[in-house]
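Page 37, continued from 36.
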C-alpha cells in the first residue's frame, strides 16, 4: 500500500483499524469456541536449520515514516503481542528488531506456556504455586496478574493464530516442575515458542511496519519522557531517528553475558541498558534464571532439554549413577523448582 505521502506500508492507514483484527469492544467476551481465529499463512514458511522460517518482505529503513504512535523494540512474543494489541486499537506501530524478525528467545521455547485452564485448576492455585516456587522473593502483584490474566492472554494468542496441541478436542496440558496441576499448554509438541513466534510475526508483518536488522541504540528523551528512538541498520549502515508517542522495550534477556547459554545471540540485555542510559531505574538485576538441563556436545550450540521431560517422569543421575535430587528435595526431587534443581 502507498500512502498520500508516498510511503509504503505493510498494513492499512494508521487511522483505520486493521483488516483482520477487531477492536476489543466488538469482540465476543465469552467462550473460547467463539474466538475469532486469525489463520497465519503457513505456506509462506521456508526451511532454515531444520526449523520453519517465514519469508518476509521487510521495508528498507528509508521507507518507514519519521514518527509513529508506538515504537516497539524487539520482535519476540512481548514485542509482537504489544504491537498487535496497539494496532487493534488503531495505533500506528513500528517494530524494530536487530536480527531476522523471528530471531528471539521466543522461538526456542519448547516446553510450553503455563495457564490454569484445566479441569479442577484455578488461577489461585497457580498463584500459590508461583509464590511457593519464588521462596518469598516474588512480586506478588506481578504474579497475581500473570496467573489471573493467563487464560485471557491464551485466548488472545489463539485469536492471533496460535494453534495449541489438543487431545480429543480438548487442549492438552503437560506437567512441569513446581506446578501442582497439569497446566502447560504446548504446540507442535516441543515447538511451542516457534508456533507462537511464527503466528504472531505472520500477523504483525501484515499489520505494522517492521524493520529487521535494525537495532535501537538510544532512547530519545524530551521533557523527561521517551519521545522516540535512534536506530542503526546493520545491513545498510543507515542511521535513523523515529519519533514515538510511546516506546515499548521488549528486548528479552541477557543470557549472552554467560559463556554457555541456550539463549540466541540477540539476548544481550539491550533494553535494560537503553533504559538505564536515559535515566530509568532498574530493579532485580541480581536475578538470573538458570535452567537445570541442557545438552552440550562439542562444537554444537547448547541445546536446552525441556523441563517437560522431568514432568513426564525423567530422573537425574550423576556420572556415577547416583540419583541425586532426593538428597536435596526429598519430596519433589526432579520436580523441585528450577533454582533448586539447577
Ligand atoms: C532455549 C529456551 C527455552 C525456553 N523454554 C521456555 C518454555 O518452555 N516456557 C516458557 O515460558 N519460557 C521458555 N523460555 C523463556 C522464553 O522463551 C522467554 O521468556 C520469552 O520468549 C521472552 O520473550 P521476549 O519477547 O521478552 O524476548 P525475546 O523473545 O528474546 O525477544 C527479544 C527481541 O528483542 C530484539 N532486540 C534485542 N535488543 C534489541 C535492540 N537493541 N534493538 C532492536 N531489537 C532488539 C531481539 O532481536 C528479539 O527480537 C525459554 C528460553 C530459551 C532460551
Amino acid at each position: 500500500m502507498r500512502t498520500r505521502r508516498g510511503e509504503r506500508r505493510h498494513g492499512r492507514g494508521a487511522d483505520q483499524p486493521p483488516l483482520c483484527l477487531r477492536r476489543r469492544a466488538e469482540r465476543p467476551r465469552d467462550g473460547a469456541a467463539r474466538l475469532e481465529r486469525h489463520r497465519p499463512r503457513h505456506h509462506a514458511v521456508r526451511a532454515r536449520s531444520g526449523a520453519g522460517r517465514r519469508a518476509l518482505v521487510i521495508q528498507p529503513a528509508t521507507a518507514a515514516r519519521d514518527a509513529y504512535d508506538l515504537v516497539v523494540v524487539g520482535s519476540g512474543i512481548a514485542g509482537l503481542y504489544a504491537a498487535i494489541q496497539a494496532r487493534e486499537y488503531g495505533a500506528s506501530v513500528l517494530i524494530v528488531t536487530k536480527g531476522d524478525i523471528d530471531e528471539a528467545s521466543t522461538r526456542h521455547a519448547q516446553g510450553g506456556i503455563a495457564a490454569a485452564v484445566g479441569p479442577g485448576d484455578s488461577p489461585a492455585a497457580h498463584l500459590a504455586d508461583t509464590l511457593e516456587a519464588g521462596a518469598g522473593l516474588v512480586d506478588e502483584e506481578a504474579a497475581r496478574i500473570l496467573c489471573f490474566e493467563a487464560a485471557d492472554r491464551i485466548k488472545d494468542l489463539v485469536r492471533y493464530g496460535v494453534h495449541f496441541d489438543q487431545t480429543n478436542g480438548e487442549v492438552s496440558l503437560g506437567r512441569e516442575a513446581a506446578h501442582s496441576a497439569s497446566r502447560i499448554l504446548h504446540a507442535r509438541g516441543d515447538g511451542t515458542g516457534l508456533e507462537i513466534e511464527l503466528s504472531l510475526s505472520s500477523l504483525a508483518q501484515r499489520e505494522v511496519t517492521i524493520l529487521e536488522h535494525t537495532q535501537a541504540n538510544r532512547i530519545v528523551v524530551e521533557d523527561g519522557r521517551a519521545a522516540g528512538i535512534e536506530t542503526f541498520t546493520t545491513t545498510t549502515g543507515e542511521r535513523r531517528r523515529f519519533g514515538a508517542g510511546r516506546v515499548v522495550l521488549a528486548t528479552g534477556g541477557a543470557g549472552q553475558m554467560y559463556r554457555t547459554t541456550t539463549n540466541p545471540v540477540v539476548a544481550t540485555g539491550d533494553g535494560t541498558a537503553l533504559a538505564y542510559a536515559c535515566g530509568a531505574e532498574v530493579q532485580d538485576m541480581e536475578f538470573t534464571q538458570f535452567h537445570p538441563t541442557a545438552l552440550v556436545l562439542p562444537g554444537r550450540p547448547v541445546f536446552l532439554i525441556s523441563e517437560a521431560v522431568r514432568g513426564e517422569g525423567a530422573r537425574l543421575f550423576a556420572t556415577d549413577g547416583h540419583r541425586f535430587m532426593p538428597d536435596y528435595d526429598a519430596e519433589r526431587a526432579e520436580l523441585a523448582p528450577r533454582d533448586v534443581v539447577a
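The domain at 294-341 is CATH 3.90.700.10 (Flavocytochrome C3; Chain A, domain 1). Flag for discussion at group meeting. Residues 73-79, 96-99, 103-106, 108-113, 193, 215-216, 250-252, 262-263, 266-267, 270, 304 surround flavin-adenine dinucleotide (CB under 6 Å).
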